[in-house]
Amino acid sequence: MAETSPSRRRLTFAALLLVLFIASLDQTIVSTALPTIVGDLGGLQHLSWVVTAYLLASTVVGPLYGKLGDLYGRKRVLQIALVFFLIGSALCGVAQTMPQLIAFRAVQGLGGGGLLVVTMAVVGDLVAPRDRGRYQGLFGGVFGVSTVAGPLLGGFFVDNLSWRWIFYINLPLGAVALAVISSAFRSRQTTERHRVDWLGTTMLAGGLSGVILYTSLGGTTYPWGSPGMLAAITAGVVLLALFPFVESRAAEPILPLELFRNETFRTASSIGFVIGFALFGSVTFVPLYLQVVKGHDATQSGLLMTPMMLGLLATGIASGLLISRYGRYRPFPIIGTALATAALYLLSRLGVSTPTKEAAVYLLILGLGLGLTMQVLVLAAQNAVDYRLLGVATSGSSLARQIGGSIGVSVFGAIFTNRLGHELAQRVPQGVHVPTNVSPAVMQHLPPVIHVLYVAAVAAALHPVFLTASAVMLGAFGLSWLLRDVPLRETAGSAGIGESFAAPREASSERELERIVSTLVRGPARAEFCRSTLVRSGLGLAPEQAALLCQLDDQPRTADELAGELHVRRARVVELERELATRGLVSDGHARIELNPAGRRARAQLLEAGEAELKARYPTLHETGEEAAAVLQRLSRSFLQNQPPKFAAAS
């Protein structure tokens, strides 16, 4: 990345946080508005597709964006993703029919999947490795805030403005972020060459779409055995069956099959898939219960969803701290899936007369269980694979959960729609018309008899949704016992645990390794690392001398330039340059300072000592192999450049 001034960097970083906020917010803000949307646009049988379309689109394109950013530059790809997201948001706001809204949500998802992935990659360009761990907490905070704020904002807009504002709100925020990124962010000048797995991505998207079309439209819009439905499920199964064969021949597959030979990764991904299936598929219908059955407005239903979000945040942070302290993670998903199974079963018992506070308690239990489980699965996958697979293991584990959610929403939507039709047929006398697009507002004006019958039918139709979800989550509980408690690598101990959500990251093992090590080597640990590295190098350099030596590269620099980069007085840089010249490490007497051959050898020796020191402090880094040596030396250089306490006093 090109050199960026501190003020420009801070402005760009603020814009990235805003992008991440609106992208993550869109995953939760829609839920409380769904009953009202159905009331306005009709198509109750397609309610789940408002969520599914976004999830499916963002899931499938997510792995592509990281490589496209390497090929064409992160700035350009991030701008394209943001434009797609904003166009989709605007179109969703003006949608007049349910099919239009579903199609526009897919457009929005095509951009949303890129926003999450590319934003994390841009931070890797923008933030020095030495600071990357510190910034990670800010992103965890954004995900936490958006998780809680989504249902509340969605309810507020529905009650005070219009459901369309849950999409319109993205436009001014996104426009500000786009303007800042366009003007302030300077992308890297060089790009990495990658082979994009277009065939694998197309087959995965086509296979998932076929399965989801069959499960969501079959038995409602079309008969299960109709030619169109049979063609959809056949194509979906065939494409998914061929997907592993295609991936085995791809130069850079989006899901390397080597991962699935790892037992822990297989188990963690399977649990994640099942949890995504049960969670996204069932929780989508909670606002429907709160608004249609219990009669709460959208704002109230958003408030009643917060216990689940707060429970997730609380146990997510607590489990992270406990895992960091004791180095074991297996008990947490076992306890978490048990709590989630119990909570979903309790939700299946909700009825017309159930007190609302009781539903809130059940949601709290569900959140507590999910917080103990979701991020731990990503950690287990990271901890079990070789470092060269660290990036794809991280993204692959999250991908499994998202795929499960995409399928789960459609399956539970089909269960609810079929059951509702059956319940209405049994409860409503023949000849009595029941509107199919009843919104919470319209229901207040229904004849009392019809109102009571409809509410009872909706409550009864939700029972099998939550009961099936409980049975599915019980499967995750069983799978969690198969998760081996592999001793936690010390370098994995700070690999993002303690975050409320495992934030999506670029599938780059180098970037993930940088983030983990920079999190570990902080504060006193960094000062001790620098002292030990200087001793290990045998060069006899003072801390300030080592910092200047590491700051110099093959491009000669003036003393003024180096003073600005190191944040010290120019006079101090001149003094250090003379000291290095006396040692025969820099060319003396020139306007620009540059290393001579002896200086370049000394710098290489210093960085090799830093690599050795990191491996000595964290023995599992020996597993990284030769391909990670450059990463460790780059980190050592960054730490040494920023380490001398005397520099801060001199500036």
What are the defining features of this structure?
651 residues; mainly alpha; Growth Hormone, Chain: A; Arc Repressor Mutant, subunit A; 3 domains; 72% helix; 0% strand; elongated
Describe this structure in words.
With 651 residues, this protein is mainly α. It folds into three domains: 444 residues, Growth Hormone, Chain: A (Up-down Bundle); 55 residues, no CATH class; 130 residues, Arc Repressor Mutant, subunit A (Orthogonal Bundle). 72% of the residues lie in helices and 0% in strands. It has 27 helices and no strands. The longest helix has 38 residues. It is elongated.
Question: How are the secondary structure elements laid out?
Answer:
Layout: H1 6-25, H2 34-41, H3 47-72, H4 74-94, H5 98-126, H6 129-160, H7 165-168, H8 170-184, H9 198-217, H10 227-249, H11 263-283, H12 286-293, H13 298-326, H14 331-347, H15 356-371, H16 374-384, H17 390-427, H18 440-443, H19 448-480, H20 509-520, H21 524-537, H22 543-551, H23 559-566, H24 570-582, H25 597-617, H26 629-641, H27 645-650
Q: What's a concise summary of this model?
A:
The chain has 651 residues and is mainly α.
Our count of domains comes out at: 3
Number of helices: 27
Shape: elongated
Task: Give the biggest sheet.
Answer: none
Percent in strands: under 5%
Rg for CA atoms: 27 Å
Level-1 CATH class name of the largest domain: Mainly Alpha
Mean pLDDT: 77
The strand count comes to 0
What's the CATH topology label of the largest domain?
A: Growth Hormone, Chain: A
